[in-house]
Amino acid sequence: MAIIALVSAKGSPGVTTSALAAALSWHRRLVLAECDPAGGSILAGYLGGALDGPRGIGELAVGELRDGNLETAFWSQLVDLDAPKRERLLLPGVLDPAQAGSVSPLWQRFADFFTGLERGVPPYDVLADCGRLQVGGPPWPVLRAAAIVLLVTRAHLPDLSATRSTIRAIQRDLTEHRVPPGTLRLLVVGDGHGTSEISKALGLPVIARLPDDPRTAEVLSLGGTVRSGRPLMRAAGALEVPVRALLDRRRARLAWPGAVQPREVTAPTTPGVSGAV
Ligand SMILES: Nc1ncnc2c1ncn2[C@@H]1O[C@H](COP(=O)(O)OP(=O)(O)OP(=O)(O)O)[C@@H](O)[C@H]1O
Ligand SMILES: [Mg+2]
């Protein structure tokens, strides 16, 4: 169980779509956390705005700043993507830029809390959509806390060129913060240059490649019925395998004595989680 952060260099390569496609087919308990400072899009998009009121990381941040109640408020701010199972949960992102100001001083607090979720009872993986790194106030503490950072990129030259400089920025930051090496991987979306060519040119392994699948992407972006047999869903469903393998390898290799032991958090047995309708 772990935090897996997804981030992009620029443009809209498909971070949110890929994260949602993966979340909908994830085999373990999962929280999909929209940490993109530019705003969340799944509530209004895939879920068609189908909720009774404001919900998500912005509300959590306001409550935490006012009452310090993150632990108790967290579960009531989630949306069940697979109701009523409570196995795949969405923490919606900020709804308007004004909320981003409340969230940005709390990224470290959220990162610590997410780290606790992976050791919770029951444990949850956290897929964190961290948006574009070039937008102001990126959630660096979440990236630093992640066991794996997936840098999402399209496979054409302009995207790859922006991705190259972002690789350096992420690696520099993670090294400065003493994150053990080997965290960063590429997740390539769509057609263009070959996978091994991209990996060689950017000097970073590609963990997986997701196909261009506009029909499914549109459903994930705007709402509708997701079909598990579609190419994007099949590929996103398979993403968990190399992610898990990398996590296992890193844990076996690292077992770092200096690693901070995260606090445990316990999910409530009675749902405070609302079902997606
Ligand atoms: N695998 C895919 N095949 C086809 N279209 C895709 C795919 N993934 C994403 N898209 C489309 O690309 C557009 C951008 O996707 P998305 O919003 O997921 O990108 P993003 O990286 O999260 O962008 P932003 O940084 O603006 O949040 C959307 O129209 C989406 O439907
Ligand atoms: Mg996005």
Summary tags:
277 residues, binds magnesium ion, single chain, 18% strand, nine-stranded mixed sheet, 11 helices, Rossmann fold, ParA family protein, P-loop_NTPase, binds adenosine-5'-triphosphate, alpha/beta, disordered C terminus
Structure in a nutshell:
This is ParA family protein. It contains 11 helices and 9 strands.
Task: Describe the structure in your own words.
This protein is of the alpha/beta class and 277 residues long. The chain has one domain (3-255): P-loop containing nucleotide triphosphate hydrolases (Rossmann fold), CATH 3.40.50.300. The chain contains eleven helices and nine strands. It has a nine-stranded mixed β-sheet with strand order 8-7-6-1-5-2-4-3-9, sandwiched between helices. β3 and β4 (88-91) form a beta hairpin. α1 (15-25) packs across α10 and α2 (57-67) crosses α4 (97-103). The protein is globular, with a radius of gyration of 17 Å. Residues 257-264 and 269-277 have low confidence and may be disordered. Bound molecules: adenosine-5'-triphosphate and magnesium ion. Magnesium ion (MG) binds next to α1 and β5.
Please give the domain count. 1
Q: What overall form do the CA principal axes indicate?
A: globular
CATH class: Alpha Beta
| Largest sheet entry | 9 strands, mixed
CATH architecture: 3-Layer(aba) Sandwich
In N-to-C order, the SSE pattern is EHEHHEEHHEHEHEHEHHHE
Contiguous low-pLDDT stretches (5 residues minimum) are 257-264, 269-277
**DSSP, total strands:** 9
CATH topology: Rossmann fold
Report the radius of gyration as a whole number of Å: 17 Å
Query: Pairing-aware structural class of the strands and helices?
Result: alpha/beta
